[in-house]
Amino acid sequence: MTQTPLPPPLHDALVQLLGPSGVLTNPADTEAFCVDWRALYHGKCAAVLRPANTAECAQAVALCHAHNVPMVPQGGNTSMVGGATPDSSGLAVVISTTRMNQIHSIDHADLTMTVDAGVTLKAAQDAASAQGLLLPLSISSEGSADIGGILATNAGGNNTVRYGNARELALGLEAVLPDGSVLDLMRKLRKDNTGYALRQLLVGSEGTLGLITQAVIQLQPAPRSRETALCAVENPQGALNLFAAFRKQDPSAIHAFEFMSGTSMALVNNLIEGASLPLEAPAPAYVLVELASPRADDSLRSLMEDILGSALEEGLVTDAVLAESESQRQSLWMIREEHAEAQKRAGASVKNDVSVPLAAIPEFIADATKACEALIPGIRVAPFGHIGDGNIHFNLVQPEGADPAAFLAQDHAMMDTVAAIVRKLGGSFSAEHGVGQLKTYMMPSWRGGAELQTMRQIKAAIDPQNLMNPGKVLPPA
Q1: Domain named FAD-binding PCMH-type: which ranges (predicted)?
Q2: Beta partners for 47?
């Protein structure tokens, strides 16, 4: 006999629908689905459901809806804010999309890809690349994060400065609503002015309005020329000035523009095997800039050299290295992509995924650093991120030798300290990670009044029983 709080008729119907391997109830099998990537949340679930296609997913959702069972959609389980983790009641089922992993088609005329929600971003990127195309979204967790979760959280990433967030790349969606009905919005159209843009309502809803099952993703021609450089700068203002210099010359060439603080870079060099700083000496801050073009004979190298040459003469850049091969380019990107992992290995950390207007970035980093160091002496302030689009991951790592639990017990104090400065500068407390369950308490003061009330009304209209990812995004009424 299986041990699960699911009503026996529901359990039996789900097993008949999904097969024995499609319904996991043994705690040893479900445990990994109940803990988030950061290990901040340790929940329980009645079962993990693993549908293989939209039809199975829709029927499973309809069965759970009929029995009033809460459902937690989960893709690659890479959420930074506990958005895909069940609560501790053990009453909810996790619906995993990992078996829904088919790449259905790539359309060269429309430059689109039609994929299941469970396809990992890396698999989708590789499939596009094999046909000379580019899926322009790029994030650190792309080997694990899947398309459904990426769209549900409106992920951003390294190339947002050029191509936009996931929202800008989703032309069509298919989703299972909380009652099991299937919402088919799988249109490849760039122009479709026929009522409410429901796909945009689902993108960024973090699984609270429905479970994304398929998507039509916009692609781009693959770059045939690319130049990448790592630059040392004196401070965030220097990084911002360097961005302005590149944007002034050719904004369409900027593929990525990433900022890394000296503290965060030191953690990578000290804690990540194979990482090494390819510059003469450590610097207060760094920029990783990548230029790209679909033209094979584009003069990106001369553009990069001209801008960096002038920047070195002016003292805007103190040192720089240009990738001379694809392996060197990958090495530079590895340094950038390992910042989150290095901070995880350094101990407990509090992540502030925030955005402010570009001109306010230096003031934000300076003021927030000073405030957090005053709040917790010895704290390691390790900001990095997408300075080209105003998104800074203002991460706070515990003091060396400190008790991790005691440090995390002050997470709200730290987040509120940072958020107060973000608010003063006209920014947002969550730029790309979402709200999840970590930041729901911020919603009333940041998005209160008519805005939050409208969100509640939309949720109530689509999910009146509050069964789809309850406890996420919206705080208790």
Answers
A1: 41-222
A2: 93
